[in-house]
Task: structure prediction
Amino acid sequence: MLRDLKRRGMRAPVVAVGDGALGFWTAVRDVWPKTREQRDWFHKLGNIVDKLPRRLQPRVKAALHEVMYSETRERAREAITRFAGEYGAKYPKAVTTLEKDASVLLTFFDFPAEHWKHLRTANVIESPFATVRLRQRVTKGAGSRAKGLLMAYKLLDMAQAPLAAARRRTPPALVRADVVFADGIQQEGKAPRTKARAA
Result:
């Protein structure tokens, strides 16, 4: 699928968001080697919480939200360290699940703060499709292929409005131009992200 998108002219995404499906990441690296990886927080939260007793899950979710919603990468790393200190002795699998992907969970800090909400999770894409599926079930089918496509298009068009607002505040062209962002803030006079990474 990715090769077909590339063949049809899709440029390499600056960042891809997805869960831990290794096949997807292998394919992305094969087709677009420079695309950055942002691991999906929604799926990661579920994977971590599943490794803990039910009675601890609300507290653990709050601790993980501290990481996820930190204002800076440094504060997020500090929250990961606190999490490891608090839960590492009794629940090492939960801590390992967080720590092994920490760097790709925090990729969003290298992008405009307005985009963070849409980069932390793939739900921005999955949720609209869930809406389309639900509407299709409720209406017992659209009646015809044309009506079904029209319904899906309209629902997806409405769902993309919040993403469009973020694009207006910080245009994707700015991100594509390799302007450097640190903790969501544009940095003046710094080397482009690709050069900084190579150094």
In short: Confidence is low (pLDDT under 50) at residues 191-199.
